[in-house]
Design a protein that fits this description.
alpha/beta; D-Maltodextrin-Binding Protein, domain 2; 3 domains; seven-stranded mixed β-sheet; two-stranded antiparallel sheet; 9 helices; 11 strands; about 25% strand; DNA-binding
Length: about 300
C-alpha cells in the first residue's frame, strides 16, 4: 500500500467521480481507476459501488476513509515538522556536551548564537564522554562538544577554546603560595583523578606518561566538580582547568611551568551524517569562533 494510493482513494471518495478526481490529481482516468482497483484488491473488499464513471462510496470505503484522513493528516504534520526543524532560520540544533561545559561554555554559546538567530531552538543533552558519544553515534545528537579530539577519520573536529591547566591544591597546602610549579614536584603527592569515562583524564594520563612518572592516586571521582571538592577538602592535588563551576572556596590555582598543559574543547561531527541547515549554520558559527581563536 502506497501513500499515493491513499491520496487517490481519498480524492475519489470526496468527489465520487473518477474523471473529476483524475482532473483534481492531474493524472489520467485509467491510471486512477487502476490505482483504486489495486487498493481494493489489496484490502480484499470493494470500496465503491460503480455506476459508470460515477462511484458511490460504500460502507467499507466510509470505514477506511476515516483512517486514511487521519493518516494523511499525520503525514502532513510530519512533513511540516521536518520542514520547520531543518529551516536554517527557525530549525533545531541537536547538541550533546560534557557535563562540566554546561556551567559556562554551553550557556554562553547558546545565548550568543540565539541573540543573532532568535528563532533557532536547541535540543540539548549533557553527560559524560561515553554518554554523549553514544548520543552522537545513534543519531540523537547531530553535534557534540567535548574535550577530546576524535581518533577516527569519520569525524571532523572544530576547536572552540583552549584553557590553561593548573595545579589545584587546597588553600592550606604547602604549595599554596607558589607562583608557579613544575609537575615533577608533585610526584608522591596524593592525586585526585577522574574515572575512565572522561576526555580530560585520558589527556592528562598521556601527558604524565610522556613525563615518565606515575601519580599516587588517592581518589578517582566521577566529574570535575567532585575532583575540585576533594582537592578543596585537602584530600589531594589535581590538574584542572580554571573554569566556572570549579572555582570553589579553599582552592588555589598554581600555573604549571611545563609547556603544553592546556585543555582543548571542540566540536565533533560525523562527516557522513546528514546535517540540517540549522545545524550547518551553527557549525559555521563555531568555525568562525575557531578562526578567531587561531588569530
Amino acid at each position: 500500500m502506497e501513500l499515493t494510493q491513499l491520496e487517490y482513494f481519498l480524492a475519489v471518495a470526496r468527489t465520487e467521480h473518477l474523471t473529476k478526481a483524475a482532473e483534481t490529481l492531474s493524472i489520467t482516468q485509467p491510471a486512477l481507476s487502476h490505482s483504486i482497483s489495486k487498493l481494493e484488491a489489496e484490502l480484499g473488499v470493494p470500496l465503491f459501488e460503480r455506476k459508470g464513471r460515477s462511484l458511490q462510496i460504500n460502507r467499507y470505503g466510509t470505514m477506511f476513509a476515516k483512517h486514511v484522513e487521519k493518516i494523511l493528516q499525520e503525514v502532513e504534520r510530519g512533513r511540516k515538522e521536518i520542514e520547520e526543524s531543518v529551516n536554517p532560520d527557525s530549525g533545531t540544533v541537536h547538541l550533546a556536551y560534557l557535563n562540566i561545559l554546561g556551567v559556562d561554555l554551553i550557556p554562553r554559546l547558546v545565548r550568543d548564537y540565539r541573540s543573532a538567530n532568535p528563532k533557532i531552538a536547541f535540543e540539548l543533552t549533557q553527560g559524560d564522554k561515553g554518554a554523549i558519544q553514544e548520543q552522537l553515534e545513534n543519531g540523537y545528537a547531530d553535534l557534540m562538544i567535548t574535550s577530546e579530539r576524535p581518533v577516527s577519520d569519520a569525524y571532523d573536529w572544530v576547536p572552540i577554546r583552549l584553557l590553561p591547566l593548573y595545579l589545584a591544591v587546597a588553600s592550606d597546602h604547602r604549595f599554596a603560595d607558589r607562583a608557579s610549579i613544575s609537575l615533577t614536584e608533585i610526584v608522591g603527592e596524593p592525586f585526585v583523578g577522574l574515572k575512565s569515562n572522561c576526555g580530560l583524564r585520558d589527556s592528562l594520563m598521556t601527558r604524565f606518561q610522556h613525563m615518565n612518572f606515575s601519580l599516587a592516586s588517592a581518589y578517582d571521582a566521577e566529574d570535575l566538580q567532585t575532583v575540585a571538592g576533594f582537592v578543596a577538602a585537602g584530600l589531594g592535588v589535581s590538574v584542572l582547568p580554571q573554569t566556572a563551576g570549579l572555582n570553589l572556596d579553599g582552592l588555589r590555582w598554581i600555573p604549571i611551568q611545563e609547556e603544553g598543559w592546556v585543555w582543548e574543547v571542540g566540536l565533533h561531527l560525523r562527516k557522513d551524517r546528514f546535517l540540517s541547515p540549522a545545524s550547518r549554520r551553527f557549525v559555521g558559527y563555531i568555525e568562525e569562533l575557531a578562526g578567531a581563536l587561531s588569530r
